[in-house]
Design a protein that fits this description.
- The complex is a heterodimer.
- By secondary structure, chain A is an alpha+beta fold.
- Helix content of chain A is 42%, strand content 14%.
- Chain A has 2 domains: 176 residues, Periplasmic binding protein-like II (D-Maltodextrin-Binding Protein, domain 2, 3-Layer(aba) Sandwich), CATH 3.40.190.10; 189 residues, D-Maltodextrin-Binding Protein, domain 2, CATH 3.40.190.10.
- In chain A, strands 2-3-1-4-11-5 form a 6-stranded mixed β-sheet. In chain A, strands 6, 7, 8, 9, 10 and 12 form a 6-stranded mixed β-sheet that branches.
- In chain A, a hairpin with a 2-residue loop joins β2 and β3.
- In chain A, α3 runs parallel beside α4.
- Chain A is globular and about 70 Å long.
- Chain B folds into 3 domains: 183 residues, 3-Layer(aba) Sandwich (D-Maltodextrin-Binding Protein, domain 2), CATH 3.40.190; 190 residues, 3-Layer(aba) Sandwich (D-Maltodextrin-Binding Protein, domain 2), CATH 3.40.190; 191 residues, von Willebrand factor, type A domain (Rossmann fold), CATH 3.40.50.
- Chain B is built from 21 helices and 18 strands.
- The longest helix of chain B is centred in the N-terminal third of the chain and has 22 residues.
- Chain B is globular and about 75 Å long.
- Classes of the chains: A alpha+beta, B alpha/beta.
């Protein structure tokens, strides 16, 4: 994405500084606090809301962080981690129903949206975009196509080598199904799958990619384009081939594997989710392959620190310590082990014993072609896409 | 054929069902409460009541015991989980009606039917009634099993299995073929006989009916209410249903009868195909056709193996959803506690346990293995495609359509009016006969106007030397219903129990009027054993009604009523005709037992 932050070098410097500060303040072997630091009455609380796609990773990092007995100005830091879909969290933060000190949504675009709406109400941003407390990505993952391995070559051949959205549209609307495409008639109709776009970020990104695919573009998608009858038909045609739209990342993960090869042929999901499904599929008697779509949307999972009138310096510093810990080499290795792309450039992908490097035979590419990255559309366009889906699909 | 009349019947079935449940209290649920091995919940506990379909009650009960032992708390209070058995269709009916207290079962926090489509039906019917939805769209499956067409292996092979794909369309075509199995070189197998359960009650029956409707509409997705109401689909379903042996509340009846036939070396004489869940095929091939053995234990393997045919058009999954109800009687603490138990059930080590039950784990991190394999009649790489669960309006319309297209029945009620039927029932004020009369009268609402019903009574020397008497000749229910009610109300007890003579005579009478276009059956209710000294030869009776491998045209469904009823005699009689013996040793259960018996028609 064009608005994706690129200050990874800054992050590396900060990580180094964090280690230094950590060593100076409480030392690597543990701090001055007992085992009850998590419940100490003078603790600095850091309510952290994570995108639920990476909830498990967040919890792991927080557990490690807590184990280091972190402190700020001599006071223990207590992180209260919770997970929420990015869209729901954005709404809750703007409405001040949720008041996290730190937020890791799926994409920086959500931070921009919240800042924009917050600014309109309160006159200033809630999340700082520059300076020491600026928003920084903690991991990345592009949206990919997850395809049944035995059906992928048939579809690619039918599509002339590249699975485009137009080709996928033609395939799912083909009444003859796989038989007409030269595949096994037992595979039935061509079926698509993605998560619910109202409640799961990857579902929303699927609609975004579908729309870009329709226009063959990478940026500047407008509400007027979403209102176009041709696009609406294009989207509703594809959605008609989806049997159900799981309403949480966990449910979606389950749908990708537990029903075997029966309930979809092609799905859109995050690269790290696809890798996990590829790992689990053989246990259910089938195999999956990963294919990058013509337009790539990269989720950068930014760590954003909220600064309001109620935020103290200690709050900000505690959040900063946590952000820097997320970007530490050790935690970035943890991200990589989960199939996420590290934000810290000191943690390489290629050549390592990690899911990205070891699944290149299943279609994973360590280096992505930057020219194919699609921009995240405006808030108005996103709302128009959601409305389209609610009006035309909503199952 | 109009859906409106079917809808009326559906409403009758539904109302009768609710009335039955209300009348019977706890008996209706056939509940098996589990949780902390029978220990009572702590006084201040957050109580999570789980209404579970039968196949996973034992599993969830064991997990509840383990979970309760962990002393998990919500809001500072201990969580106590309890599991009660309720069939999916019955649970759905209860939820539509806000789970009335008269059901005798505590209102559930969690509803876990065999398939999520029941949740869709509940919400659709509540919407029709102007009530808010109570079943959430979000759920996790406890475990999974696909619906398959189970066939004796030689029959499947005759159709080209496993090399040639077989589907519902093939089954429908074969069902209508006057040559039957002769078309495939096996005239000795006779006509094609299909087994399918009542979709109002049974999940596999519902799923199979959906799949058949897809085939009838020539669609693989987007099945609409208009589709299932169309003459094309109604004709298709009518033709398919015409090959039905009988219906029923559970597929286990078919599998038990098949096992009996297999023991006689006549597996292919009873049934050609039956729509069941894959897990039932596995159980059958492990020598446990009625799913009674503890997980991991096996019985004698059948002589003729059953195989899972995964329909080529696609199939549906029994996804055993864990629905934390969004109902006014569920408190936030109960919902949270229920979610915690759901998390526990989804843990990998607990999901691995479902494999021992023959199910596929819901958790994607847990791989499948034995017994989901070819040795047990399953294929872990199947199904390759699915049929989507249609929207709620399509599902409810389809149930009405099924009522209008199902195979009509010709049924003879044969009621014991011996002296012992005048004894008090279950310590209450009513006699056994009074309860049975009432239950039989209520069951008349469950018949369609297209069905035919008659009534005989029996004791000893009731009509001269005969032990039986015809009191209402078999005729259309539409004309007979009131006469039957009045006659039933007037029955009085006298003399002994002339069971064998009566059974033989009633069988002969039915056999004489049996036609392929109708399910022909006897409902035989008795509270005793044969007391006719002039005919006390059970072997002769069994031989008389049994025919070659139990393949005769008349099925006997017997009700063993009260503790003195001869279960052994009735079991032999029903097995001889590939029917089923229903246990109503507690007479107060008789209304629900009658409902289950009538579900065969």
């Amino acid at each position: 994405m064009r608005n994706r932050l690129t200050a990874l070098a800054v992050a590396a410097v900060l990580v180094g500084a964090a280690f230094l500060v950590r060593g100076l303040v409480w030392g690597d072997s543990g701090g001055p606090f007992g085992d009850d630091t998590a419940t100490a009455s003078d603790a600095v609380a850091v309510p952290l809301v994570c995108a639920d796609e990476i909830g498990a990773f967040c919890k792991d990092v927080v557990d490690h962080f807590t184990a280091t007995k972190p402190s700020v100005d001599g006071r223990p830091i207590h992180v209260e981690v919770s997970q929420m879909d990015s869209a729901a969290a954005a709404e809750a933060i703007v409405e001040r129903r949720t008041r996290p000190l730190a937020w890791i949504p799926a994409s920086s675009a959500w931070v921009d949206e919240v800042n924009s709406r917050y600014r309109a109400r309160n006159g200033s941003d809630i999340f700082l975009k520059s300076g020491e407390y600026q928003v920084l990505p903690v991991a990345e993952s592009p949206m990919v196509l997850l395809v049944q391995a035995d059906r992928a070559p048939v579809l690619e051949a039918h599509c002339g080598g590249t699975i485009t959205w137009q080709c996928l549209h033609a395939a799912v609307t083909n009444a003859g199904g796989w038989r007409s495409l030269g595949g096994d008639p037992g595979w039935g109709l061509v079926k698509f799958k993605h998560a619910n776009p109202i409640q799961v970020n990857s579902g929303l990104l699927s609609l975004v990619l579908m729309a870009y695919g329709y226009y063959g573009d990478l940026a500047d998608l407008t509400p007027a384009q979403i209102a176009d009858p041709g696009l609406r038909s294009f989207v509703t045609d594809i959605e008609a081939s989806v049997d159900s739209f799981p309403r949480s990342p966990a449910d979606f993960d389950l749908n990708l594997v537990s029903f075997g090869a029966s309930n979809y042929d092609v799905a859109t999901t995050y690269e790290f989710t696809a890798i996990k499904a590829i790992q689990n599929a053989p246990g259910r008697g089938f195999a999956l392959a990963l294919v990058y779509p013509p337009q790539i949307s990269r989720s950068d999972f930014p760590f954003a620190i909220a600064v309001t009138d109620d935020t103290s310096a200690e709050d900000k510093d505690a959040a900063l310590a946590l952000r820097d810990y997320f970007l530490s080499e050790e935690m970035q290795q943890l991200a990589l082990a989960a199939g996420l792309r590290p934000a810290n450039p000191d943690v390489p992908i290629a050549g390592g014993d990690n899911p990205l490097a070891t699944h290149t035979g299943d279609g994973v590419q360590v280096r992505l072609p930057p020219s194919r990255e699609a921009d995240f559309p405006s808030f108005e366009t996103v709302q128009a896409l959601r409305q389209l889906w609610l009006q035309e699909v909503n199952r | 054929m109009k859906v409106s009349s079917a809808a009326t019947r559906r409403s009758r079935r539904l109302l009768a069902s609710i009335a039955t449940l209300a009348a019977l209290g706890a008996a209706c649920t056939t509940g098996t409460g589990t949780g902390s091995a029978g220990a009572p919940p702590p006084a201040d506990a957050v109580h999570v009541m789980i209404a579970s379909s039968p196949e996973k009650v034992e599993l969830l009960g064991d997990l509840a015991d383990e979970f309760n032992g962990r002393k998990v708390e919500v809001g500072g209070k201990p969580v106590f989980v309890e599991v009660e058995k309720v069939s999916s269709g019955t649970g759905a009916d209860l939820l539509v009606n806000d789970w009335p207290e008269s059901s005798g079962q505590a209102r559930p926090t969690v509803f876990t039917p065999a398939a999520s489509l029941w949740g869709t039906v509940v919400n659709e019917r509540r919407t029709e009634a102007g009530k808010p939805a109570v079943v959430p769209k979000d759920f996790r499956p406890v475990m999974l099993t696909p619906v398959v067409i189970a066939m004796p292996e030689p029959m499947a092979a005759a159709l080209g299995w496993p090399d040639k794909p077989i589907g519902w369309g093939d089954v429908a075509a074969l069902a209508q073929d006057p040559q039957g199995w002769a078309r495939f070189g096996h005239p000795e197998w006779g006509p094609f006989r299909l087994g399918k359960t009542d979709p109002h009650i049974s999940t596999s029956g519902f799923n199979a009916t959906i799949a058949a409707a897809y085939a009838g509409a020539g669609k693989l997705r987007d099945l609409t209410a208009a589709d299932v109401s169309s003459p094309q689909v109604q004709q298709f379903l009518t033709q398919l249903e015409s090959s039905i042996v009988h219906y029923g509340d559970t597929t286990l009846t078919f599998l038990q009868n098949l096992k009996h036939a297999d023991d006689r070396g006549a597996a292919t004489a009873y049934i050609s195909a039956v729509a069941v869940e894959e897990v039932s095929v596995i159980d059958y091939n492990q020598g446990d056709p009625t799913n009674e053995l503890p997980p991991g234990e096996t019985g004698p393997a059948p002589k003729t193996k059953l195989v899972s045919v995964y329909p080529k058009e696609g199939t549906l999954w029994s996804d055993n959803p864990y629905f934390v109800l969004d109902a006014p009687w569920v408190s936030p603490d109960q919902a949270e506690a229920a979610r915690l138990f759901g998390d526990f059930v989804s843990e990998p080590q607990n999901q691995e346990k479902v494999l021992a039950y023959g199910f596929r784990p819901g958790n994607p991190d847990v791989a499948i293995g034995a017994p989901i394999d070819a040795e047990h009649g399953a294929d872990p790489t199947q199904p390759k495609t699915i049929l989507p669960v249609p929207p709620g309006a399509t599902l409810t319309t389809l149930l009405s359509t099924w009522d209008a297209t199902r195979k009509p029945a010709r049924v003879l009620l044969v009621m014991d009016v011996s002296g012992s039927m005048g004894d008090p029932a279950g310590g209450g004020r009513q006699t056994k006969l009074e309860l049975a009369r009432s239950a039989a009268a209520s069951s008349l609402d469950l018949f369609s106007d297209r069905d035919e019903v008659g009534l005989w009574v029996f004791s000893t020397e009731l009509d001269g030397q005969k032990d039986y008497r015809e009191v209402v000749p078999i005729g259309p229910v539409s004309a007979n219903r009131e006469l039957l009610r009045q006659t039933l109300a007037a029955l009085t007890p006298l003399n002994g129990t002339g069971l064998y003579d009566t059974t033989a005579a009633a069988y002969d009478a039915l056999e004489a009027v049996a036609t392929p276009g109708r399910i022909t059956a006897m409902v035989l209710l008795t509270d005793g054993r044969n007391e006719d000294r002039t005919n006390n030869d059970l072997d002769a009776l069994v031989s008389h009604i049994g025919g070659e491998g139990g393949g005769g045209p008349v099925r006997i469904f017997a009700i063993a009523y009260g503790r003195d009823a001869s279960v052994d005699q009735l079991t032999r009689i029903t097995e001889a005709t590939n029917g089923k013996m229903y246990d109503s040793q507690d007479p107060t259960n008789i209304t629900s037992v009658f409902r289950n018996v009538i579900s065969n028609f």
